[in-house]
Design goal:
This protein is of the alpha/beta class and 555 residues long. It is 36% helix and 21% strand.
């Protein structure tokens, strides 16, 4: 008997003609690690939320969800809380207490666990997850990676038999994301916990899965082992093919096997490196390095920080510590850094939401002073925040977009053009709260660009966005910079930054360091680098994207 079974599950949100889930039938066995993937809005999150009656969305449903052979609605809320753990995409959305130790005990307290048992469970989980060093800290002081690890530890203290993870690494930097997924795999392998995981960044999650389930338009369109799922996606030229791990995409093009990759096609960086070394030995490759490129001289930067210091409270530690940065006009500048290093704070300083206590900030040649937003000095600068829901204030996406062009004589045409460009035409009459993470991100970007800014600040713009939408976003951002728009983007998505940016830098210890071209920046790093670079650096120099590696192999 399958541990979890979806039987012809169909679901529609209120007042929506299309089905979010359309006849989903799927069985998940005990101890499996299942990677659920698909484009934004394909129904992944909707499906997962049907595994907890407390989280199930409101709408019209037919079909069944079975847990251990019983209809889920017959399983008591207490047993659902105990046996089905759920970790959400946003680390802050799940935290309910102010202290780490109390957060870990919260679920156990609610279930009436014996205090001696509770103490042992909490201590054991703190040790297993490496939390003992910040056990007494306040949850507000934790980094994003620490918060997500705390959420996982708090769920695991209940000793669930099923662990559901909805885009758990979406807001984590590359190092924290890798650590988190390694921990999840350890839970699955060593404790036998069934894991159901959704991810858009498939580099690590895809290969570690026992089974991959692909969804599109509310339906399961492919399933099986990672190799089988990859072959299916490639053979039918599915848009999700672009999200497959870098090694198998490079292999498919170089070997000319895009229609049918071999059974032993590499899925992991290690497998890809082994294959590439063998390919090098059997081929005469005339070029082994790509030029790093040079940084342009910026005489008149669009954005400028000079020795900026900032802290949120007088007695709090400094977040920015002498930060200096110049962003050339018409460029796309990417800023990376670990969780909690101050990237979002730097964007707030640039758009006047917070004021540094020392240093100078200039936007389009104008010095930012106290009261700048009220005086109009910040006209022409727009911010897309990390949580796009913060931008929505109306009942529908259409109304939100209309609010940006109210009074414009051709407002309906502007809205339609923007919706077409960002692929949100089908979302115009949806309530913003009902959008998936990727859908909300695209709708929010459409809204801020209707203001026609000169400078665009993006805080994690690819969070929750599928590979197909990333390609569209990349083209859109390049087109915008070609038209003269300046873009500063903070992101954990190193693959995206390597592909689209003109300059890259790292924020560390409150300062901007290592400003360079993408090839120079990523080829010198060990962890803040791309899968393509980690796979190829023993063969090629300065190759940082999959296209770089493909071009050097096929020269």
């Amino acid at each position: 008997m399958a541990q979890i079974a979806f039987q012809d599950l169909t679901f529609s949100y209120p007042d929506q003609a299309h089905r979010a889930l359309d006849g989903v039938s799927l069985e998940i066995e005990h101890g499996d690690l299942v990677c659920l993937c698909g484009r934004s809005g394909s129904g992944k999150t909707t499906l997962l939320r049907h595994l907890k009656t407390a989280l199930a969305p409101h709408g019209i449903r037919t079909g069944k969800v079975l847990f251990e052979g019983r209809p889920l609605e017959d399983v008591t809320p207490e047993d659902q809380a105990r046996f089905i753990g759920f970790v959400m995409q946003d680390p802050d959305a799940q935290l309910v207490t102010d202290k780490v130790w109390h957060e870990m005990a919260f679920g156990l307290e609610n279930l009436g666990t014996d205090p001696r048992v509770m103490e042992l469970r909490v201590v054991e989980m703190a040790s297993f997850f490496g939390i003992q060093h910040w056990f007494h800290e306040g949850t507000a002081q934790l980094s994003g990676g620490q918060k997500q690890m705390l959420n996982l530890a708090s769920v695991m203290a209940l000793q669930p038999s099923v662990l559901v993870l909805d885009e758990p690494t979406a807001q984590l930097d590359p190092i924290a994301a890798a650590d988190f997924l390694t921990t999840v795999q350890k839970i699955n392998r060593e404790l036998g916990v069934t894991v159901i995981l959704t991810e858009h960044r498939l580099e690590d999650a895809f290969a570690m899965a026992d089974a991959v389930v692909v969804m599109d338009a509310g339906r399961v369109t492919a399933s099986g082992s990672p190799q089988k799922a990859a072959r299916t996606l490639i053979a039918r030229h599915d848009p999700l093919e672009r999200a497959l791990p870098t090694p198998i995409r490079i292999y498919g093009v170089v070997k000319g096997a895009a229609a049918s990759p071999a059974q032993d096609a590499p899925l992991t960086v290690r497998e890809g490196r082994t294959w590439l070394l063998a390919y090098e030995r059997s081929h005469q490759l005339p070029v082994r390095a790509l030029p790093q490129g040079a940084l342009p001289e910026s005489q008149d930067p669009a954005l400028s920080l000079h020795e900026v210091w900032f802290r949120y409270d007088r007695d709090a530690p400094d977040i920015l510590r002498g930060a200096s940065l110049d962003v050339p006009r018409g460029s796309l500048f990417a800023l990376l850094g670990g969780n909690g290093t101050g990237k979002s704070t730097l964007l707030k300083v640039l758009c006047g939401l917070v004021k540094p206590y020392r240093g100078e900030v200039q936007v389009m040649g104008r010095t930012l002073k106290k009261g700048a937003r009220r005086s109009g000095a910040l006209e022409g600068i727009a911010l897309l925040p990390q949580d796009p829901q913060d931008l929505f204030v109306k009942q529908t996406v259409r109304e939100d977009l209309l609010s940006m062009v109210a009074g414009h004589g051709d407002a309906p045409t502007l809205i339609q053009e923007s919706a077409d460009a960002f692929g949100v035409v089908g979302l115009l009459d949806r309530h913003p709260a009902d959008l998936s993470g990727g859908e909300a991100q695209r709708a929010a970007l459409a809204k801020v660009l209707l203001a026609r800014p000169d400078v665009l600040l993006l805080d994690e713009p690819t969070k929750g966005v599928d590979a197909f939408a990333k390609e569209q976003l990349a083209k859109m951002l390049r087109d915008l910079t070609a038209e003269g728009l300046t873009i500063l983007m903070v992101s954990h998505d190193v693959e995206f930054c390597a592909r689209v940016s003109d300059e890259v830098a790292l924020l560390f210890d409150g300062s901007v360091v290592a400003v360079n071209t993408p090839r120079a920046f990523f080829s010198q790093n060990s962890f803040y680098t791309t899968a393509a670079n980690r796979m190829s650096r023993h063969v090629f120099a300065n190759a940082v994207t999959d296209q770089d590696v493909i071009d050097l192999c096929l020269q």
